[in-house]
Design goal:
The chain is an alpha+beta fold. Helices cover 39% and strands 29% of the residues. The longest helix is centred in the C-terminal third of the chain and has 22 residues.
Length: 145
């Protein structure tokens, strides 16, 4: 399956875009390959992109002052990953993202994401829906007894 097909199937679960709209949407992504163990986002980086996983598995984590690792997410195919605090607020990365396996991703810049959300209301809805689902999942995980 091609990258465009994977992304289109993913977003089609939430929104409907015309062929032209999807082509425009997809044109804002770039595909990248990473090797197992390679860092995508390192502590202190300026973060300008979020990553949609096509193949492989990513790990989002941070290391506290006692040098203990806390894993926040394993991102598998059709999942998204980044340091969102750094991405949205212009801070330096505190969350790291690296590859557990070789990985193929699509990256989207924050500025392109915002532009697409303004230009195509359905895309704005998709990203809002995705963010809301993430908050719900986080609360479910945090509130288990």
């Amino acid at each position: 399956m091609q990258a465009a097909d994977i992304l289109q199937a993913h977003i089609a679960k939430t929104i409907s875009l015309s062929k032209e709209q999807f082509g425009y949407f997809f044109s804002h992504f770039s595909q990248q390959s990473f090797k197992k163990g390679q860092a995508i986002v390192s502590e202190g980086d300026k973060v300008e992109h979020e990553y949609f996983v096509l193949e492989g598995c990513l790990k989002s984590f941070f290391i506290n002052d006692e040098v203990k690792m806390f894993i926040l997410q394993f991102a598998m195919p059709t999942w998204w990953a980044s340091d969102y605090n750094a991405l949205y607020n212009g801070h330096r990365a505190t969350v790291q993202v690296d590859c557990i396996t070789n990985a193929e991703v699509l990256r989207l810049s924050n500025s392109d994401r915002e532009k697409l959300c303004r230009e195509i209301p359905e895309v704005g809805y998709f990203f809002r829906w995705r963010t809301n689902k993430g908050y719900v999942a986080l609360q479910k995980d945090c509130c288990r007894s």
